[in-house]
Design a protein that fits this description.
698 residues; alpha+beta; Alpha-Beta Plaits; Multidrug efflux transporter AcrB transmembrane fold; 6-stranded antiparallel sheet; 4-stranded antiparallel sheet; 17% strand; elongated
Length: 698
């Protein structure tokens, strides 16, 4: 199509959700949003797009430069002009000129000693030059210029979305991650690049980053890492208490780094990263990798107590427990490995977790069959051997704990043995109890609520607002300001990232808005009333009470990045019987009402509307033809005055921007303004649109 050939096709690879948002602000108010927006487009967007891990950069509500010609229809008609006359004049006088060269070859030999490039005023560059464009000349030397019938300014190309931060205008630069890249590394790289770019910011300009979901990821990884070290410390303590000799305790402890190093090597081979899932698998694997080594050490200690040397005890113990160790490893691997082959997004979540545990289990088994018995033969002492100095120090420090533990453990072992002896005589009763437990397990699967992923506090929430159909952007902005005020009065919220005119569920609409609520850091939100559920409840309660003019709903974020803009489910209704848009809307609303009545579902909504109020311009084509008015003139007049016309281009700062003609704001406020617009017939006469068309609300 011609439009595609003119504009082109752009293909980009990016993650579906926003990795972070950088805001350009003017703390002292000296720079307006037009400047900050274009500074972002000119100086920052391309720099960030080249950062490793960045898939795309989007400047929300970008006020990209455009030479705007705000037409005055009254002045035009008074001079016998139409909007098309202005467009034609600009197209004629704002052109790219290649004037040529004087003396360019081929020329007669010796005809000229010089070669000159011919330059002339072609494409215009500023408001004055566009204002000087001649639209009409009169017989008396009268000249009508663009500045006589229009207000010319370098303004914004688009005004459909307002971007704000904390209730004040700000330019939002959304960073999208490249699929397969590391979100934390990408966030760090973007922050580093912004720190570099800030060095050349003009006076009055600054940046801030308040929306960065990777903060919660960092916090989660930190918590898992802390849990990892806590698990290692607990394993060391438990092993030491049970074995009570440093020589015996060190053998299973050595199994931890050996198995984990091997697991990390396997993760590298599989292409896994160190993330929440793989780290969680490692935390669980620590207990598994120690178990095998403890079994080996206990078996060898048992034979040493029987009088065998450590070497002979190791050989005999391995002949007894070696098969059991292999069986344990195979059973665990047979449980986790099949999980890696689950299809779909569920399999993606479990794959790293399952294979991490399976690999660590296999390495642990290999370690227990080789390294652990070898270390036991070398480190353990024969029965009755003299204790070394380190063991004597250990006994002196923890001997009281060992004695108390041994006494308690002996009592518990005897009690357990006596209980088992009594229960064995009640085998039939125990069997029925076991079957009852199996039944309770099955019952639990049915009654306990299930879900794909649990909702979790990811450090932010999302607010969606929808005003009545056909509401203006100014009304939407007023609602956004109220939401921002409520959010800043709610404990636990750091700031508000606002987009009036932006629809979370696709497309931009003047009666919709989205507000992102970044929370304060987890370390500052330790009380329950500052957790995500409490914050959402407070916001929802206040917006329902204080903003009755709009539907405002607060959503939790999606449980994991990349599966949507907000938590919950998205359903689609398809009209397969060609019932029409109104019937589709009826069915969609019926499903929404039914969903809201269903236990467990809340805040269900649809933004689909088939009957949005519109103005219908009924053109009397017979009358238009009788008045010799081409329909193309009628539609062209409407497009230019009400919708704007892309005339041609201008070049600024090494970039190409649009020249746009449109009626000034005061001439397109009501339906009566449409009737007063004028066009030209083929006879050269000026005809009001009201004489060939009627306007009505539908």
């Amino acid at each position: 199509p011609p439009d595609v050939q003119r504009i082109g096709v752009t293909t980009k690879k990016q993650s579906p959700d926003i990795t972070m948002v950088v805001h350009l602000v003017s703390p002292d108010g000296s720079l307006d949003s037009l400047f900050t927006s274009n500074y972002a487009l000119l100086q920052i967007r391309d720099e960030l797009a080249r950062v490793d891990g960045v898939g795309d950069i989007n400047v929300f509500g970008a006020r990209e430069y455009s030479m705007r010609l705000w037409l005055d229809p009254h002045q035009l008609s008074a001079r016998g002009l139409t909007a098309q006359d202005v467009v034609t004049a600009i197209q004629e006088q704002n052109v790219q000129v290649a004037a040529g060269i004087i003396g360019a070859p081929p020329v007669p030999k010796g005809a000229t000693a010089f070669q000159y490039t011919v330059s002339t005023q072609g494409r215009l560059t500023d408001e004055k030059q566009f204002g000087d464009i001649i639209v009409k000349t009169g017989a008396n030397g009268q000249v009508t210029r663009v500045r006589d019938i229009a207000r010319v300014e370098l303004a914004a190309r688009d005004y459909t979305v307002n971007s704000g931060l904390g209730g004040k205008p700000a330019t939002a630069i959304a960073v999208y991650q490249l699929p397969g890249s590391n979100a934390l590394a990408t966030s760090d790289a973007v922050r580093k690049k912004m720190a570099e770019l800030k060095q050349r910011f003009p006076a009055g300009l600054d940046y801030t980053i308040v929306y960065d979901p990777t903060v919660s990821v960092r916090e989660s990884i930190h918590e898992v890492q802390k849990t990892l070290f806590e698990a290692i410390a607990l394993v060391v303590l438990v092993v030491l208490i049970f074995l009570q000799t440093w020589r015996a305790a060190i053998i299973p402890l050595i199994a931890i780094p050996v198995s984990l190093i091997g697991t990390f090597a396997a993760m590298k081979g599989f292409g896994f990263s160190i993330n929440n899932l793989s780290l969680f698998g490692i935390v669980l694997a620590i207990g598994i990798v120690v178990d095998d080594a403890i079994v080996v050490v206990e078996a060898i200690e048992h034979h040493i107590e029987s009088g065998l040397s450590p070497r002979d005890a190791a050989r005999k113990a391995m002949s007894e427990v070696g098969g059991a160790l292999v069986a344990i490893a195979l059973v665990l691997c047979s449980v986790f490995i099949p999980t890696a082959f689950i299809a779909g997004i569920t399999g993606t979540f479990f794959r790293q977790f399952a294979l991490t545990i399976a690999v660590s289990t296999a390495i642990s088994a290999l370690n227990s069959l080789t390294l652990s018995p070898a270390l036991a033969a070398l480190l353990l002492k024969p029965r009755g051997a003299e204790k070394d100095s380190f063991q004597r120090i250990l006994d002196g420090l923890l001997g009281w704990l060992f004695k108390g533990f041994n006494k308690t453990f002996s009592w518990a072992s005897n009690a357990y043995g006596n209980s088992v002896a009594r229960l064995v005589r009640l085998a039939v009763i125990i069997l029925f109890i076991y079957l009852g437990l199996l039944g309770l397990t099955g019952f639990g699967f049915k009654v306990v609520p299930g879900g794909f992923l649990p909702t979790q506090d990811r450090g932010y929430a999302v607010v969606f607002a929808q005003l009545p159909d056909a509401s203006s952007l100014d009304r939407t902005q007023a609602v956004v300001d109220k939401i921002s005020k409520i959010a800043h009065e709610t404990p636990g919220i750091l700031n508000t990232v606002e987009f009036a005119g932006f629809n979370l569920f696709g497309g931009n609409q003047p009666n919709t808005a989205a507000v992102f609520l970044p929370f304060k850091e987890f370390s500052e939100r330790k009380t329950r009333d500052q957790g995500m559920p409490a914050i959402l409840a407070k916001i929802n309660a206040r917006v329902r009470a204080e903003i009755p003019e709009a539907l405002v709903i607060t959503f939790p974020p999606p449980p994991v990045a990349g599966i949507g803009n907000a938590g919950g489910y998205k359903l689609f209704i398809q009209d397969r019987g060609n019932a029409g848009l109104e019937e589709l809307q009826t069915q969609a609303f019926a499903m929404m009402v039914k969903a809201n009545e269903t236990p467990g579902l809340a805040n269900n909504l649809t933004t689909f509307r088939a009957n949005v109020p519109q103005l219908w311009l009924d053109v009397d084509r017979v009358k238009a033809k009788s008045m010799n008015v081409p329909l193309s003139n009628i539609f062209g007049t409407l497009q230019t005055y009400l919708g704007s016309t892309y005339v041609n281009d201008l070049t600024l700062f090494g970039r190409t921007y649009r020249v746009t003609a449109q009626a000034d704001s005061q001439f397109r406020l009501s339906a009566d303004d449409i009737r007063l617009l004028k066009t030209r017939n083929n006879s050269g006469g000026i005809v009001p649109l009201g004489s060939v068309a009627t306007v009505k609300e539908v």
